[in-house]
UniProtKB/TrEMBL annotation:
It comes from Sphingomonas yantingensis. It catalyses: D-mannonate = 2-dehydro-3-deoxy-D-gluconate + H2O. The lineage of its organism: Bacteria, Pseudomonadati, Pseudomonadota, Alphaproteobacteria, Sphingomonadales. Residues 129-258 form the Mandelate racemase/muconate lactonizing enzyme C-terminal domain. This is D-mannonate dehydratase. Catalyzes the dehydration of D-mannonate. Has no detectable activity with a panel of 70 other acid sugars (in vitro). GO terms for biological process: amino acid catabolic process; carbohydrate catabolic process. Pathway: Carbohydrate metabolism; pentose and glucuronate interconversion. Pfam families: MR_MLE_C, MR_MLE_N. One of its GO terms (molecular function) is magnesium ion binding.
Length: 403
């Protein structure tokens, strides 16, 4: 058996913070897992170092399911983003090791490819509708078949999803949380205008997506869905906070716009009602925040029974290790829908050399054994951790709102 003899956490900040778990076996085989929880990075690093790594030493690295159960049930305190991100990191690293030992890419171990590649969507944004459409045209030129549209809201200084940098978007931008101001009424006026202009300019052969980022009430979300129906959105994401899964019943009563939710979910229990009642069309749980490949496959299997497809979160707050793990998952599950893809900076790509590729709007994890991602530890060591928070959001009267 490949015995685990060491495991350690590597924190690096090549433009943004990433936490990586590296597990080593007695034969020298190593595996990588992403443990990045945006804005709370060191909590997961400490959880791993203090409470998980000591329990891994001496275990058989092949026993992925047993180790998953040990860390989940054995902690007594179940679920939560910190715990489930830590478990995910271990799970990813063990799949990486199993693949390397078998000489196979992880998607082969998961049953092999169900498709030629994973269709991905990119993020087009701009401070105006015109800028956003120009950005979308650029994505079309690069071969993207699906594009998320976010634009600035007239009368508001900033909004979610609109970046200062043309090529990269990083909302975790400050040593203490930035405070943004939000107006639902202003927002609800501009999004239908954006979609009308986008269909006019971009045509109908491209999938158009939009992220509401948890900012509407269910009835407001129903209204926006209705307003966007003529423009056939691929999905509306995170229409309302989903702690109350039943809230989506109200949205469903009012619109046929497809709904996606779940990037902040940690476990299958966060999505159970949403899936069983077919209140959503896409489940966006990620490999890194929802317990790794092992648990995400369980969520996908439940979703498949109800014709709910996957649409994993894939922003740059996930390291290339997660991106690779997501692509192995995407290629192998029958009910894959789409994958979010935000390009990492050249600095991040240099720290994490990887086998995955993009061509013609699709991505492929590559056929390197394991996950197909490495870490250049010497390079990583040159980028010191820098505290960075996501913003908070307030209504115009000062009431704290969902960011
Ligand atoms: Mg989102």
């Amino acid at each position: 058996m490949p015995k685990i003899v060491a495991a350690r956490v590597i924190v690096t900040c090549p433009g943004r913070n990433f936490v990586t778990l590296k597990i080593e076996c007695d034969d020298g085989t190593t595996g990588l897992g992403d443990a990045t929880l945006n804005g709370r990075e060191l909590a997961v690093a400490a959880y791993l170092t203090e409470h998980v790594v000591p329990c891994l030493i001496g275990r058989d690295a092949h026993r992925i399911e047993d180790i998953w159960q040990y860390l989940y049930k054995g902690a007594y305190w179940r679920r939560g983003p910190v715990t489930m991100t830590a478990i995910a990191a271990v799970d990813m690293a063990l799949w990486d090791i199993k693949g390397k030992l078998a000489g196979l890419a992880v998607y082969q171990l998961l049953g092999g490819a169900c498709r030629e590649g994973a269709i991905v969507y990119g993020h087009a944004n701009g401070t105006t509708i015109e800028e956003t459409i120009e950005a979308a045209r650029e994505y079309q030129r690069q071969g993207y078949r699906a594009i998320r549209l976010q634009c600035g809201v007239p009368g508001m200084a900033s909004t979610y999803g609109v970046s200062k940098d043309k090529d990269f978007y990083e909302p975790a931008d400050s040593d203490l949380p930035t405070e943004n101001v939000w107006s639902t009424a202003k927002y609800l006026r501009v999004v239908p205008e954006l979609f009308a202009a986008a269909r006019e300019a971009l045509g109908w052969d491209v999938h158009l997506l939009h992220d509401i980022h948890h900012r509407l009430t269910p009835i407001e979300a129903g209204r926006l869905g209705k307003d966007l129906e003529p423009y056939r959105p691929f999905w509306l994401e995170d229409a309302t906070p989903a702690e109350n899964q039943a809230a989506f019943r109200l949205i469903r009563q009012h619109t046929t716009a497809p709904l996606a939710v779940g990037e902040v979910f940690n476990s299958i229990w966060d999505a159970k009602t949403l899936i069983e009642e077919q209140l959503i069309d896409y489940i966006r749980a990620t490999v890194v925040h929802a317990g790794g490949i092992t648990h995400l496959r369980r969520i996908a299997a439940l979703a498949d029974l109800y014709q709910v497809r996957t649409g994993c979160h894939g922003a740059t707050d996930l390291s290339p290790v997660s991106m690779a793990a997501a692509l192995h998952f995407d290629l192998s599950v029958p009910n894959f829908g789409i994958q979010e893809y935000m390009r990492h900076t050249p600095e991040t790509d240099a720290v994490f050399p990887h086998a995955y590729t993009f061509a013609d709007g699709m991505m492929h994890p590559g056929d390197a054994p394991g996950l197909g991602v490495d870490i250049d530890e010497a390079l990583a060591a040159g980028y010191e951790y820098k505290r960075a928070f996501l913003p908070v959001n307030r209504l115009e009267d000062g009431t704290l709102w969902s960011w």
